[in-house]
Design brief:
Keywords: DNA-binding, Transcription, Transcription regulation. Belongs to the LysR transcriptional regulatory family. This is DNA-binding transcriptional LysR family regulator. The chain has two domains: 82 residues, Arc Repressor Mutant, subunit A, CATH 1.10.10.10; 197 residues, D-Maltodextrin-Binding Protein, domain 2 (3-Layer(aba) Sandwich), CATH 3.40.190.290. Helices cover 42% and strands 22% of the residues. It contains ten helices and ten strands. Helix 1 crosses helix 2, helix 1 packs across helix 3 and helix 2 packs across helix 3. The radius of gyration is 27 Å and the shape is elongated.
């Protein structure tokens, strides 16, 4: 008969987690100073933490030479295991947090232009409807790693490939077309786009060409052109009568309703959708479900 002895009764003689975290940072940077900067500690605190780990293990983890530190063979081995363990611990904690539907926070990453021109003006209403849920709004665009960036949901213009494990919920299809103020159209353009100052965004450099192709018109040479760093700057410039820009729905929906802008030539499908990206079906998390349902109601108004 083979006796299997469980080691569950053996007390783990591990250094404190804080000391291991300090060691991992120092080993990764091979610098106590850089580790101190990363963890917002003093150089002395990192040195004491590393000494605590070395004392518990009973071997040197670093060789100190000419004001620099180098990992020993034991240090390299411990770094690999510590990094893997900390990553696994961080992942598990994040997974637990994400499956806690009772959490009072919802981290939402949103395209900056959509956030500023459509979502933010409506968040006050959501706060009134769901005062117990705090929306942590983060502005970012393009591909996203929801786990590493600690986000529950991302709102994106789907002009890139999303991770295959993500759940994609379509919010709306995007429509695009020239927008400007009524006064600008009547005073400067009068049906002739050649007379206009075309406003461009460096984040959507092909917006005018894409619209022309969708509208089926030949190349137009504008009277003048002006470029801005972001799409929302371009739309604001159009609202301030600096020229005419390619706007999109839903970004200019409120401006069109309030007649701050007009769409004199109408809107065409851009071929892109605005979507919600989540790690699992939205209805599995009550926080994401209530926010998603609210967004769907807003977009159809």
């Amino acid at each position: 008969m083979v006796n299997i002895v469980s080691n569950s009764h053996i007390k783990r003689r591990l250094p404190p987690l804080g000391a291991l975290t300090a060691f991992e940072a120092a080993a990764r940077h091979q610098s106590f100073s850089r580790a101190a900067q990363e963890l917002h500690l003093t150089h002395g605190a990192i040195s004491r933490a590393v000494a605590q780990v070395e004392e518990r293990i009973g071997v040197d983890l670093f060789v100190r030479r000419n004001r620099r530190v180098y990992l020993t063979a034991a240090g390299q081995r411990l770094l690999q295991t510590t990094t893997e363990s900390l990553d696994a611990l961080s992942y598990t904690v994040e997974e637990i947090h994400r499956h806690d539907g009772a959490s009072p926070f919802l981290a939402v990453s949103c395209e900056p232009s959509l956030a500023m021109r459509w979502l933010m003006p409506r968040l006050g209403e959501f706060r009134t409807l769901c005062p117990e849920l705090n929306v942590d709004l983060r502005m970012a665009g393009g591909p996203i790693d929801l786990l590493s960036e600690n986000c529950d949901i991302a709102i994106r213009r789907m002009d890139f490939g999303a991770h295959e494990d993500y759940q994609i919920t379509t919010l709306c299809s995007e429509l695009a077309g020239p927008v400007c103020t009524k006064d600008y159209w009547e005073k400067h353009i009068s049906q002739d786009l050649n007379k206009a100052n075309w406003l461009h965004s460096r984040t959507r450099p092909n917006a005018w060409d894409d619209w022309r192709n969708a509208y089926g018109i030949e190349k137009i040479i504008p009277k003048s052109e002006q470029h801005f760093d972001h799409f929302f700057y371009t739309l604001q410039a159009a609202q301030n009568q600096l020229g005419i820009a390619i706007g999109s729905i839903p970004l200019v929906s409120d401006d069109l309703k309030a007649q701050r802008l007009i769409s004199p030539l109408g809107m065409q499908s851009s071929g892109h959708d605005y979507v919600l990206l989540t790690l699992e079906e939205p209805n599995l998390d009550p926080r994401i479900a209530v926010f998603t349902n609210w967004l769907m109601e807003q977009i159809t108004r």
